[in-house]
Amino acid sequence: MTDFEQGPIRPPSEAGSLLVRVSRNCPWNRCAFCPVYKGTRFSLRSVEEILADLDAMREYYGDAPRTVFLQDANPLLSPTDDLVRVVQAVRQRFPRVRRVTAYARSHTLARRALSELRRIRDAGLDRLHVGMESGCDAVLSLVKKGCTRADHIEGGRRAKAAGFELSEYVMPGLGGRELSARHAEDTASAIAEIGPDFVRLRTTALPPGTELFAMAQRGVFAPLSEIELVAEIRAFLGGLSGVRTRLESDHVLNLLMEIRGDLPSDQARLLAICDEFLALPRDEQARFVLARRLGWAGGPSDIQKPSLRRELDGAIEELRRQGLDPLAAADEIRRRLV
Ligand code: SF4
Q1: Nearest C-alpha to atom 8 of ligand 1 is from which residue?
Q2: Are 95 and 125 a contacting pair, CB within 8 Å?
Q3: What is the pLDDT of residues 99-120, one digit of tens each?
Q4: Is 1 within a domain?
């Protein structure tokens, strides 16, 4: 038997993980930027169903899995006894697994007793990925995140106190132009209060069909350009002085993937990467942004290759002939990426 159920998404850092579906869909499902579970209903799966999946997975994959990710958006809503049984069963069926992780909502973490979180941690759930998105209440309310800055801070601190490794996702650009400065400042200060092990950048996109896309169409949300996004990330980074964490940029939506390192030691180097891009002449910025969004370049130095520059200049000339601004065209590609 090789029949088991798996959900639609996992964090980029869990690309190689065995996906075990503990709950289905998202209990909140109202975030304005999120298209993932729209039109679906949240449900918890029974322990028996999950254990049957684990048996089928063991038969299918053998002892190969080294990391496991528990799906979907918030498995921590499961009763503690159930989740403990599931995590123990994962550990027992896959003894060579090094790491078991899950998504968790701050709203849930902030309301779970520390003693229950500790039991789940002790059973063998190692790391939680939290979609913080912003530490600014105005932004959280704008995008209907369903939790507050205080929830994020309390939830993050509880996760750390229970012994979990904590990974917080931050979304540059989520406040649009109007809230950009507050978003950067309040998110950095919330991260400083939580002290997560990882901060992962995931640039805001505008997938058609989402409420945020409709807000942008109506003119009530002004998305940041790629250049404004780098300036916002610079402000965010500047607010992280003294914070000890690992900053990751592992999402395809991000422009400068090399903004990754250990803070505080790498802070000056990462700020310099932002400054270098922001100081480029506009034509060079346009060349790199377009190359990155077309998948032709990884980092800014790639566009120095003569053959790539020739191709880029041809593409830019063609866009201009059609009356399109190359930076705006590249922005459009990025905003529609999911
Ligand atoms: S971002 Fe997370 S919490 Fe918000 S709707 Fe999507 S899955 Fe649910």
Answers
A1: 29
A2: no
A3: 999 999 999 999 999 999 999 9
A4: no
